[in-house]
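FW: tagging you since you asked about this chain on Friday. Here's the raw sequence from the shared folder, copied in full. Didn't touch anything.
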Amino acid sequence: MTARLHPFHEWIQLQQPRLGTRVTYATDEFFAAKERLIEPQDPVFIDGKYDDHGKWMDGWESRRKRTPGNDHCIIRLGVPGIVRGVNIDTHFFTGNYPPQASLQACVSDDDVPNGGWFEILPKTDLSGNVDNYHAINVDSVLTHLRLNIFPDGGIARLRVYGEIHADFSALTGVIDLFALEHGGRSIACSDEHYGSMHNLNVAGRGINMGDGWETARRRGPGHDWVVLALGHAGRIEKVEIDTAHFKGNYPDRVALHAASFKANEEVHADDARWQLLLPESKLAMDSQHEFQSELQNLGAVSHVRMSIFPDGGVSRLRLYGRATEE
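HL: got it, structure written out here
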């Protein structure tokens, strides 16, 4: 099943370790290691599990502070991005969660910046054993976050939702215009019952059937679809569709349409401006499919709609082309 849906599901998770994000510093991690703060899986509680420091907890947890001040940790994003929302997840922390937290950010080349911090989330009350979602209204490209907890305690996970801003001035030739590291993002889909649409453009091949986009079995008419925003407008020259690990549940056929839109907000799955990029084509189970000569020359496009017939799972989608200046 997909992870818990949340208010910022349309955005990607910037804190993912597979993007290169790291927790580079913590004032204290006596009870639980700082690296667990950005683990990709949801936190768990293991009854009766203890280590040399006490009860094992799945998150970052500092000791009880006996001096003035507060604890904090620093997260270096693997790729710069704009933060749209966060979840300060305190699941399974009940009598040991911080009553308050805040977030600061900066832009730096250092793992542990010495200055330049500014506030993106003021000191905010937290509740224990829940998701604490907060919108971030700062339109700045950031490289680091500092999570401050007041005064001490444990946080299970920090989820950072937003959009990647890649520097296309340094990218030449044919690139994957939809790649996550280039700012590509799935923005809408008909269904994602078993696997998130945000898995389609992460680096590497899928690790299992859960590491892809998969819909429920369609029992009515029609077909499933997903709408994708390219990181940069460009001319698509080659497409790769990977059904890795999908064997009894891969789509029978696939088609691609593309168009140029000024903003994601104006994109709709049934918009009349979509033009055929890849005619309806057969797929095979657990295979990488390459399409090149079959593609229509549409010029520069900003968005793509992938339709699968009638339903099923796709692990990865690569849209190779050349970024355009416009």
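FW: DSSP finds no helices and 22 strands in the chain.
HL: agreed, and Residues 97 and 154 are 5 Å apart (CA to CA).
FW: great, closing this out.
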